Description:
single chain, 9-stranded antiparallel sheet, 6-stranded mixed sheet, 17 strands, 36% helix, elongated
Amino acid sequence: xxxxxxxxxxxxxxxxxxxxxxxxxxxxxxxxxxxxxxxxxxxxxxxxxxxxxxxxxxxxxxxxxxxxxxxxxxxxxxxxxxxxxxxxxxxxxxxxxxxxxxxxxxxxxxxxxxxxxxxxxxxxxxxxxxxxxxxxxxxxxxxxxxxxxxxxxxxxxxxxxxxxxxxxxxxxxxxxxxxxxxxxxxxxxxxxxxxxxxxxxxxxxxxxxxxxxxxxxxxxxxxxxxxxxxxxxxxxxxxxxxxxxxxxxxxxxxxxxxxxxxxxxxxxxxxxxxxxxxxxxxxxxxxxxxxxxxxxxxxxxxxxxxxxxxxxxxxxxxxxxxxxxxxxxxxxxxxxxxxxxxxxxxxxxxxxxxxxxxxxxxxxxxxxxxxxxxxxxxxxxxxxxxxxxxxxxxxxxxxxxxxxxxxxxxxxxxxxxxxxxxxxxxxxxxxxxxxxxxxxxxxxxxxxxxxxxxxxxxxxxxxxxxxxxxxxxxxx
Length: 476
């Protein structure tokens, strides 16, 4: 908060006293006693005006404090959930009540406000200016992130003189200005899209990659079909590669991502409480586009304010496992087109309503942030026989143009994961450099984080969450 020093007009008072002293000095007709007697008059006035001035200074100091308190009354967390006009009313009532003057009373105890009951107000949609002559207030709102409200309050009054009144100076003008600002965290709905495609079933650690390759004869993916590629698991039983990975407790990226969602929901619960905000969340998973596949787009948890239930739903998300090579199920084959990101964006875009400003003003709705956790590999239609590789940022723009921010956690798709696979070397590796730029373009500015082997996915997602709401802290 900034407060001006205010002002007290004394120039004309001392000008009048100077004139009286000059007259006395020019008068040569009396003796010393008479001169002394005359001198007592301006000296008495000077002493009296000093008392008047000190009284005005004390009054101004008190009103400065009243102004500060009144301005703060307009930006309390409760008031930020109300309209600018209600904020102005609170400021006026608070100021005049603490000043000890009825708003329409005018003068009390030698303190005068010229307000009367004549008001002039103008609201242009974000700035409300209002004055009654003695008290002027400007309330400015910024709803870009949450609600930021600035109040500038100016008062003009007069302190009544006792001695100065004899010189025709009945009042000393006083006044001051204060400015204060407060920001309240917005209410936010979080929509989480979790990539559960086969390529996300990749070991999250270097040790895990080495161990899985030693058990599968070189393949580092735990995503192969349940009826084709097999190996011996930790129990000396024949199993698919995913079964082998889980039997040896090899952490996979998709499973670490599930844990990360649970951790983020816990952080969101704490943050909402600290920020006095309401957070809700929804969880969806995506892989293949065709609903005949067992890993198509799924709503695992509709929008809810029970954030812990979203974490529970994440733990239950199923990993994409095919029946056999090129076929998600025994009755449906799709050439392993397993990561339909454009289809997922299309579907989530129809689920998310238009966002609001996130304030508590009646009729307003929450802001919205879409979190996407993915390895960035788009494998959707296999046009020409190879994956599209990079996400289509046009779909991201469609979402962002609605005022919805997008946060992307990129679990880096590694070239080394395809070592030894001839088809991938031809159809995927030459295009891998397109993946990360597409995700950067997809995300809102500053909201694309990347993790790779041996990184903590939960820690990264939590940092991304905090970055997404970084402008939502209360600053009052």
